[in-house]
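REQUEST ID: PR-0412
SUBMITTED BY: lab tech R.K.
PRIORITY: routine
TASK: structure prediction, single protein chain
INPUT:
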Amino acid sequence: MDESLYKSVLAWFERKGWQPHPFQLEVWQKYDASFSGLINAPTGSGKTYSALIPILVHGSRQKTKGIKAIWICPIRALAKEIEISALRAIDALGMDWSVGVRTGDTSQSDRRKQKLKPPDILITTPESLHLMLASPKDTGALSHLDALIVDEWHELLGSKRGVQMELALSRLRAMNDKLKVWGISATIGNLEEAKEVLLGCGYNVHRSCIVKAKIKKETIIKTIIPAEVETYPWSGHLGIQLLPNVLDVIKNSKSTLVFTNTRAQCEIWYQKLLEADPDLAGVMAMHHGSMSKELRSWVEEALHDCRLSAVVCTSSLDLGVDFRPVESIVQVGSPKGVARFLQRAGRSGHRPGAVSQIHFLPTNSLELIEAAALKEAIEKGKMESRMPVIRAFDVLAQYLVTIAVGSGLRPDNLFREIITTHAFSSLSHEEWQSILGFVVSGGSLSEYNEYKKLAKGSDGIYRIINRSAANRHRMSIGTIVGDGTLSVRYVKGGKLGTIEEWFVAQLHAGDVFWFAGKPLEFVRIKDMTVYVKKSKSNKGKVPAWMGGRMPLSSQLSAAIRQKIDDYIHNKVKDDEIKALAPLLDIQRERSILPDQSTFLIEKFESREGYHLLIYPFEGRFVHEGLGALLAFRISQIKPITFSIAMNDYGLELLSDQEIPLEESIENGLFDTKHLGRDIGNSINAVELAKRRFRDIASIAGLVFKGYPGREKREKHLQSSSQLIFKVLQDYEPDNLLYLQAFEEARYFELEELRLRDCLERLKKQDIKIISPGRFTPFAFPIIVDRLRERMSSEQLDDRIKKMKLYIEKG
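STATUS: complete
OUTPUT:
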């Protein structure tokens, strides 16, 4: 590093009482040498200035006009913080650079000003960057771009927004092969792959690097342990009984964030805290994604200015806002992932050298195992990987129109650019011609002009057909789509409520499910409405809700299994596991505790029927697919129907007939052979694909959601996407978007890869089939979740008390 270039920077740091971290100096040195790469540093360690300072130092010698650097933020709140940091540094260095912010919240007048006089540093989002690529004037402003920073790259990596970012980078590199690209990422399990995806195929390995901060961020994790585990709920997702402990944390801290996993939890905890301590009125607020931008901004500013003592929030405050005053964090319920928990812990002590402090509040007794597992995983640095999305043809179709609307689509050049991305490195020339042809002509939809988006000029360049189509496209740019809900009605009339699409997608005509305390037979779906009729059956599926379906990560699943193994072999050192000992001992007395070499299956008969409890400890998503798979395979041996329920630890199959378990195992119940085929037969694959296709059609621009203030009703969007799906199914079954819907159903809805890994692990274990004669502590929460939809809250509370007493008395 040329210290003469950084003399003013070092002087500024000295005035502030700062000392550059070694990782910051390393990034500056690598930037000077025209490297690109990935910066990995703890929250609050100064990683923003590690990337920003060299941009300013080198930019101070540039005389060209236009945007010199783009800083990509995954969320709007982060853009504000980056702007403050950039302006602070520019002022300290005596530069006359300007900083602009362009997000979905930026007014049209501000955008016009930016076009007339582009800022030197533009802070924006992936969506807004694509909007610039869809404008010839904006694209021209990028011709002098020297650097692009992607903040919180790990947040984009495992989503279609990451693919969107990859495509934009491929275009910017084509415009300037000397462009320096840097990502900033939290610790994840696949940092090297994250760097490769960011930099694209064919990057100069000799001019790329990962810079890791060797800073040990101290995180203090305090578990709120119930006084008596035996009397604390053995199931549930609220943990309100420990509310007095949360009040103590709030009263003993200058400021506190109370993280919940769902918006419903957030609302309930906020109300319960106010009821318990009315003095919190005016000094406590709530923050979640359904609130207006104005309200959320007020909460953020009030917290930053120390006007609030506490904020009850969701993932809306996971990242992006520099809350220096926040002293303590409370996590209500397991976050189901190591990285997510550490990210939230980092919201406290959010500055170099500060200690992060987080309190883990279990919402049921068994979550104490997860608390201990989280502690150990963080201590050992076992973080989840973020798997990059590949071959997302809906994003590619949208991008092709973006380029055509902007500077015009030159097919050969664009194909060469696109295959430099990780997402489309395997794109064949035939597939390229197929997706391009579909965007141009509409394929089997060619009878309708709205699907003919591009026209080829005499110069060989494809352009958008008209201004109206261009405007519609600009308004549709993006990959963030919402999950709809469906109204539930009787065939003969009468509304019961709403239910989420993902659950309905699994139902076949005639299937029975429980809703609003009633057994209902699924008849059909029409116009975003689920039509049902009363059923006399007392068996059926139990709906789960997306808000409560955060998937348990594979790392945390493995850590939980290890904690149980440690207890069995007397290697307990965690206070959480020691506190849970009475419950674990009851499980061992009534059944067994499975160690790492044991696969536990429990079976017993009750007044409800024949119960089969299976404990892979692999997470709700995997268990959902596994339950359907096992039910199908058993039904091939004996015609039998099941009610299926699951949680993160195991699943239950309940039938009114005796279940041929041993015979099923002998016939390959847990085999991976024919897994894909059997999954397709066990769950309505076409319905799952239809559900995925709704989002695919929206991203690909096949369905227009309407102009602001004149949005189309959800049922129109749903019917349009289903109609398109049916046309492709009948007339163009090799369409890439149609095939993508089935791929996504397999890998995102059913987690087929993880299910396969789970079955491989189970095959290597010693199967122990136990007949405890009654439900055990492990079975208790699964059964309660099934009963929750069949009973009123009063009936359920009474039933839970009787079940606990039944277990405790033996």
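NOTES: The first helix runs from residue 7 to 16.
REVIEWED BY: pending
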